[in-house]
């Protein structure tokens, strides 16, 4: 395991203060920011003075509350313009794949997105393995079979997904009103549980679990998917891999500004 690099504590404290401001209704009072960050008011005030001078924050006219400053907004605008948020999350994905120590937790992690009229994988992170299990980026995934596609479809309006479900079932010669209803029920369960599953849908023995990545507006911007081969990776909805994936997905959504559960 790579040794943790030495950093500057002051920079980390500033990050904690900014994160605390994002989690608190703004403009925020000093005592509320103290409660949110756990930093003592006296120490917090000294940092706020420096952040005011640097333009990261600003004060209300009466001087009683704090808000994000012009520099913070410029940073946000630049990040939005220059890069997709999931690109900024790449180091965290690499760290997560490092947590999958055994094959029972999966062998690859992918990011899937809804593009045009379907779901596709846009990024892969893979453990050292003699078997490559990733799919090619750009390949459209089945909305009735793929964990990634089902996860993304479940969070879309039915008027978008229903025609796709019907067409796909007919292509598989599996169409019936009961089967369409079953898929709709599975979508509802995915939204409720926060996880989707597929068992050998794309390749015999290749199993998958997928969870949503929410942005600050509460929209699903991507699906995070773990892939692995049976019999080691069983992709159980109530298993350890599913719990790890859901927790990590919530943490990544939090980093994108999502404040829901």
Would you summarize the structure shown here?
This protein has helices spanning 9-22, 30-37, 41-54, 70-82, 85-88, 90-99, 147-154, 158-171, 177-193, 240-255; strands at 28-29, 57-59, 65-68, 108-115, 118-126, 196-199, 206-214, 220-229. With 261 residues, the protein is of the alpha+beta class. It folds into 2 domains: 9-82, Arc Repressor Mutant, subunit A; 85-255, Beta-Lactamase.
Structural domain count: 2
Give the quaternary arrangement of the chains: single chain
Poorly predicted spans: none
- What is the 3D shape? elongated
**Rg, Å, rounded:** 22 Å
Tell me the distance between the termini.
Answer: 32 Å
Question: What structural class do you assign from the helix and strand content?
Answer: alpha+beta
CATH fold-level name of the largest domain: Beta-Lactamase
Number of strands: 8
Known CATH architecture of the largest domain: 2-Layer Sandwich
Number of helices: 10
Question: Percent of residues in helical segments?
Answer: 40-55%
Strand content: 15-25%
| Sheet of most strands | 5 strands, antiparallel
Provide the succession of SSEs: HEHHEEHHHEEHHHEEEH
Mean pLDDT: 85
* Strand order in the largest sheet: 5-4-8-7-6
In CATH, what is the homologous superfamily of the largest domain?
GAF domain
What would CATH call the class of the largest domain? Answer: Alpha Beta
Give a topology summary.
Elements: H1 9-22, E1 28-29, H2 30-37, H3 41-54, E2 57-59, E3 65-68, H4 70-82, H5 85-88, H6 90-99, E4 108-115, E5 118-126, H7 147-154, H8 158-171, H9 177-193, E6 196-199, E7 206-214, E8 220-229, H10 240-255
Antiparallel strand pairs: 1-3, 2-3, 4-5, 4-8, 6-7, 7-8
Helix pairs in contact: 7-9, 8-9
